[in-house]
Known about the structure:
A: 4 strands; B: 231 residues; mainly alpha; 71% helix
Amino acid sequence: MLIDWFTVGAQVLNFLVLVWLMKRFLYKPILDAIDAREKRIAAELADADAKMAEAQKERAEFQQRNEEFDRNRAALLSKAKDEVKAERERLLEEARRAADALTAKRQESMVNDARNLSQAITRRTQDEVFAIARKTLNDLAGTSLEERMAEVFIRRLRGLSDQARQVLIEAFKTGSGPAFVRSAFELPEGQRAAIGTALNETLSADVRVEFETTPDLVSGIELTSNGQKVAWSISDHLASLEKGVGELLKGKSKPETGDGTQPGGAKDSNGNP
Amino acid sequence: MRLSPDEIIFWQQGVFKLNATLVFTWALMLVLAVGARLITRRLVTDHTRSRWQNLLEIVVTAIVKQIEEVGLPHPEKYLGFLGTLFLFVATASLCTVIPGFEPPTGSLSTTAALALCVLVAVPMFGISEQGLGNYLKSYVKPTFIMLPFNIISEISRTLALAVRLFGNMMSGAMIIAILLTITPFIFPIIMTLLGLLTGMVQAYIFSILAAVYIAAATRKREPRTGAASPT
Lengths: 273, 231
């Protein structure tokens, strides 16, 4: 008999034990290891995919940021250009204004110089004229200049118009104080008496007169009483002379500035200067 | 003349006896278990792994793939049974190159035991997969008349499994023994190499046939009209 049934049973048992052993020690650990490795590889691949996606996202973001930066830079550059242009315009305008102001100032100082010069000329002329007049009067007349002045003053007093005389009378009547006769130099006694007599005759009243010396008059005599004044002095004449010279200078400077600002050829071409 | 290692008896007490088949089987079991344990003790899940681990992984994945190709959808479930069948038969054939080794598969008792295991495992897997009723119904298909033929086929294929393996293994050892007596040493070596080849082929055939039987038993027979009907 080829089949030994005890051996068959024992072999079935052996085989079952071997199945269990193989499952325990071979298949399970091997399959587990393969599964673990596959899982790990899958995880790594997923991780790589995620990283790649992230990298792409970051790249896109970076690109976008770059573009934005470029845009911003261009905007800033154009803005800066505009600002520089505006600043340049402003500075040019300022410089122009400063130049205009300087020109105006210069013109003003020129005008001032002219005025000062004219004043100096006036003063000088005044002094010179006075000196010449005084010298000439001294040389020409036998009597002193003051005497002549007194005479002239008396004559003017007598030659006053009726209206002026009335005003003076009113002034003397209302005034409480004496009438003042001011002169540049001390008047001699005779002249003082003559002036007092002339006043009394002209105003038909007894007037108390006080004599004062005032060098400001330059040379001359004036009568003041309660705000009213009758005078003859070189100062008056000099004032009128100064006025005349001043008008002359003004008249001279005006055409100069007018010529400077307006082109003169236009009038000439029209034939209507 | 000795046809089976069952006849070499080392110790006997009544029906209990310790023959060469059992001893060599235990030796094989020891080698397989210890070898597997030694290698799988230091398994790594890294990309670099030992050569032995590579070998075992190749063997296991090849078996899994083979089972899958036969038509079993969840090969891990059948791996323990079918894989062990293959490994046991293959190792027994490989070890014939060791002088003095008697392959346990050269004993009809061993092959009958393996065939009995298949005989029991097929209905077990079939019932677990499609239920007792459905499995039993498969015996009366296509008609009730087929029931005895199905049962006869079940038994005869088990017998065929046992006898095929036993015949091949026994004949290999027998041919070598006969050749040793009449020819110079070179012929037995060639025959041993040929025996290795037939041994591997038999291991493959045995386990593949078991897989096919299990696949036939576990396959759900869906009604043909149901598959064609549109949902």
